[in-house]
Amino acid sequence: MIKPEAQIHIKNLRLRTYIGFNESEKQNKQDVVINAWIQYPASQAYDTDNVENAVNYRTICKEMIAHTENNRFLLLEKLTADLLALCMESSHVTFAKVEVAKPHALRFADSVSLTLSATREQ
């Protein structure tokens, strides 16, 4: 029997937040680009066509937006870990990965990014 895993990808969520520890970073919001991958067993969702058996990516996205825009962060690690925790809140989720990029953080690079992932033990 095939039991496919669904993978939701929130792609290039562009937000602004206070991130960094330099004085200018503390005073001015900066752009961040967020990518999240959320995996869960999809069979109950597609068998029943019931929203209660699926992961609500809209709710997760709204929580990510609110958390990012309404807080201050010294490190990419903290913001990324917080967003990963939001992705893992649903008991349906078996794996999640979050990447947060700071465009133009380095002079000759498009961006600097940090990626964290987590797996739920079953």
CATH architecture call:
2-Layer Sandwich
By DSSP, the count of extended strands is 5
Q: What is the name of the CATH class?
A: Alpha Beta
**What's the multimeric state?**
single chain
Topology order in helix (H) and strand (E) letters: EHEHHEHEE
- Low-confidence segments: none
What does the model show?
It is a single chain. This protein is α+β, with helices and mostly antiparallel strands and 122 residues long. The chain has a single domain (5-119), classed as GTP cyclohydrolase I, C-terminal domain/NADPH-dependent 7-cyano-7-deazaguanine reductase, N-terminal domain (GTP Cyclohydrolase I, domain 2). Helix content is 30%, strand content 39%. The protein has 4 helices and 5 strands. The protein has helices at residues 23-27, 43-48, 57-69, 76-88; strands at 5-19, 30-41, 72-73, 95-103, 111-119. Strands 3-1-2-4-5 form a 5-stranded mixed β-sheet. It is elongated.
Topology:
Layout: E1 5-19, H1 23-27, E2 30-41, H2 43-48, H3 57-69, E3 72-73, H4 76-88, E4 95-103, E5 111-119
Helix pairs in contact: 3-4
EC number: 5.1.99.7
Catalytic activity: 7,8-dihydroneopterin 3'-triphosphate = 7,8-dihydromonapterin 3'-triphosphate
Protein name: Dihydroneopterin triphosphate 2'-epimerase
